[in-house]
Specification:
CATH class of the largest domain: Alpha Beta
Radius of gyration: 22 Å
Shape: globular
Order of helices and strands: HEHEHHEHHHHEEEEHHHEEE
Distance between the termini: 19 Å
Strand content: 5-15%
Number of domains: 2
Helix content: 25-40%
Number of strands: 10
CATH topology of the largest domain: Cobalamin-dependent Methionine Synthase, domain 1
Structural class: alpha+beta
Length: 380
């Protein structure tokens, strides 16, 4: 969004911007997005807040007050922020929080897999209801609990989403691609190699370089990967791409053209969460193929909270490199790991400039991490 705001400013656009979603916060909007733009930027935690902001913007007096309040907020200190180290201060030493005691696990196969997923109901079962109904559609309680209690608003919202599902069941297409690679750590980078019967026999196909936490003994995602071994044995990683966006934008525009704005918004929210659910569905399959399926008593809530052997870190966040500028791509990777980690899931779009597009899933790195002392990676 910072890049988008800067692009809009360069294009001479000064219309107010409303931003929100799981990946943004009011502080980030105030300290990062607003300074990059030439006009008003409003943070809206949900659709109802967005509607209230629009009402304020349409009133000239309230609009001036909103602009004045934003200017005052930008002048105030944003709180204590740890300065980023200069190039000479960047460490490449592995954090002592990482335990590399367990040997690598080989890739189960080397060929690229391309699949359509025709059973939308299966993918939809992986949608996090809190994300869809609370974050995107503005429900203000625990949705599942309210639905079980037969809350009238929860029932109405559930029926509305179900009606959209029925309408787009023949339209929405879920497609997934994935492939295993060998990999090795090189300072703060991870190098990817073709998975072959004889490890160590190929040159690197791609290198991801990551940032390290700007503090003593800070973590870097490359720390979770083994370095090159003397015997040529390498770690393994799986790169995946998912999409659920085909036809969504066109149908959403048709709804909007017909004045059905709520249906348009609901469809885009459903497409976005379907893509996220497809990534979670495929990640479960990858864990199974790798030889460590989820325990039989794993619940969907466990998966929503990433309580399994694996984590997904997103491109576009400080921990990950920027997404390559290839529109419509959703890049996910998963590393064969050793131990349980703390719950942590991130997501971000993989379009040009890391911009959000309806129906295109968030992108990130699936890491099955070694043991770490880290319990809160919000600053990573």
């Amino acid at each position: 969004m910072v890049i988008t705001a800067g692009d809009l400013k360069e294009a001479g656009i000064t219309a107010p911007i409303l931003v929100g979603g799981a990946a943004l916060s009011e502080k980030f909007t105030r300290t990062k997005i607003a300074p990059a733009y030439a006009s008003i930027v409003c943070y809206c935690k949900d659709a109802m807040t967005g509607l209230a902001s629009m009402n304020q913007l349409m009133d000239p007096a309230q609009r001036e007050a909103l602009a004045a309040g934003q200017a005052t907020a930008e002048e105030q200190p944003a709180g204590e922020v740890t300065p980023s180290p200069g190039p000479s201060a960047i460490s490449t030493a592995r954090s002592s929080a990482i335990d590399l005691a367990v040997p690598p696990r080989p890739a189960p196969y080397a060929d690229r897999k391309v699949r359509d997923v025709p059973q939308l109901s299966d993918v939809w079962s992986y949608i996090n209801p809190q994300m869809l109904y609370v974050r995107h559609l503005g429900f203000r309680k625990n949705f599942e609990r309210a639905l079980a209690d037969r809350d009238p608003k929860a029932l109405e919202l559930h029926d509305r989403v179900q009606a959209i599902k029925d309408e787009v069941a023949g339209l929405m297409k879920v497609r997934v691609v994935w492939q295993f690679f060998e990999c090795e750590r090189d300072d703060n980078s991870i190098r990817l190699y073709p998975a072959r019967p004889h490890p160590g026999s190929a040159s690197a196909q791609h290198t991801f370089t990551f940032r390290r936490q700007p503090k003593p003994d800070g973590l870097c995602l490359a720390d979770y990967v083994m370095p090159a071994g003397a015997d040529g044995q390498r770690d393994t990683i799986a790169v995946l791409v998912t999409t659920a966006g085909e036809g969504v934008r066109e149908q959403s525009e048709r709804y909007k053209h017909d004045g059905e704005f709520m249906k348009s918004h609901t469809l885009q929210a459903l497409a976005l969460e379907t893509a996220e659910a497809a990534a979670e569905w495929l990640h479960r399959r990858i864990r199974e193929d790798w030889g460590f399926p989820d325990p039989a008593d794993t619940t969907m809530l466990d998966r929503f909270q990433a309580r399994y052997r694996g984590k997904r870190y997103s491109f576009g966040y400080p921990a990950c490199p920027p997404v390559p500028r290839r529109p419509g791509r959703h890049l996910e990777t998963a590393r064969a790991g050793r131990d349980r980690g703390e719950p942590d899931r991130r997501s971000h779009d993989g379009t040009r400039g890391q911009r959000q597009r309806p129906g295109i899933p968030p992108s990130g790195l699936h890491l099955l991490r070694r043991r770490s002392r880290l319990t809160d990676e919000s600053d990573h």
